């Protein structure tokens, strides 16, 4: 049984040619999947019955199985999915009270913005010391169908209309270690969510950044930085040993930014590790190489998975942010959403930590 979910319109047309030869069938099926959130051919009522039956005998539209939903009081909600091989991944639905610019006011409920955070791998090989997913070790790449399946499943559950949500690739895994499938997923998602409202976050996999920059309409780029010198960064994020800061920034300087757009740098703030005002100065000098803004994310702690790492006090967080602002950096402090549901940045772990984490 072949799954149709991750196929491009052209590949879908090729796949179904024997069963449904009419040239417009593929577009019709794509509309059912993407606009009507169909998960079976039986729902596709404008297809002739024999075609529906023949398609159902050969093909599937398999959304990942929803295992559980864990809402937190702040509007974040963690979705745990099981994939066809039994592996589990997590995705997060977030609601922001942030005001929309007037031009976008018709998209989504007024005054709110929703974001769907997708996973790209079932674990992560990069082993950043502050990230729970990394502590769990490498997983496998998700297919394009498994990536867009998370989005479609959440869109179905939350009754999201087209263009209502933003999408971020900030869930489990390093999206740029899965560039081929993530690119296919971006192509498919662009039917629903504009690339301008799609953000991919990377730990700094330079060849992946270069590959992404060659897309006709690249998504917004976020880079997890968290250290402003190679020695510290290599200790916190081993990927820096392969792609040190000079190489990373050489690639970022070539990143195609539309007018007025910026690269986002994420800085997980860890007490005594990267929160000194002096570090803020080095960070400012570094990020000024490209149009950018910095999101400071006070560490989400985990006594079990991240022993010894602590979040700085609110005063220290504030001091660091102020030091950055004084250097002329556009800085926002992001207090993670979804903490109570273990749905916050760096806390996603599929099923592998369940039961143990709170035990
Ligand atoms: N691999 C990609 C995407 C996943 S991480 C990347 O590294 O960017 C998504 C975001 O969560 C990154 O900005 C990362 O720095 C942040 N993060 C990871 N662990 C965290 C933690 N314990 N507390 C707060 N943020 C964390």
Please tell me about this protein's structure.
There is one protein chain. With 359 residues, the protein is an alpha/beta fold. It is built from twelve helices and twelve strands. Strands 3-4-5-6-7-8-9-10-11-12 form a ten-stranded mixed beta sheet, with helices on one face.
Pick out its properties.
359 residues, alpha/beta, 10-stranded mixed sheet, two-stranded parallel ribbon, 31% helix, elongated, binds S-adenosyl-L-homocysteine
Q: Tell me the quaternary state.
A: single chain
The coarse silhouette is elongated
Tell me the total number of β-strands: 12
Q: Tell me the distance between the termini.
A: 40 Å
Q: Give the uncertain stretches in residue-range form.
A: 99-108, 354-359
Count of helical regions: 12
Bound molecules: S-adenosyl-L-homocysteine
Radius of gyration: 21 Å
Let me know the average pLDDT: 91
The sequence of SSEs as H and E is EHHHEEEEEHHEHEHEHHHEHEHE
Report the sheet with the most strands, covering strand number, pairing sense and barrel closure: 10 strands, mixed
What is the structural class? alpha/beta
* Portion of residues within helices: 25-40%
Percent of sequence in beta strands:
15-25%
Strand order within the widest sheet? 3-4-5-6-7-8-9-10-11-12
SSE inventory with pairings:
Blueprint: E1 2-3, H1 9-16, H2 25-34, H3 49-58, E2 59-60, E3 65-71, E4 77-82, E5 88-96, E6 113-117, H4 132-136, H5 144-157, E7 165-169, H6 179-189, E8 198-202, H7 206-213, E9 220-224, H8 230-236, H9 239-242, H10 245-253, E10 263-269, H11 277-287, E11 292-298, H12 314-326, E12 331-333
Helix pairs in contact: 1-2, 5-6, 11-12
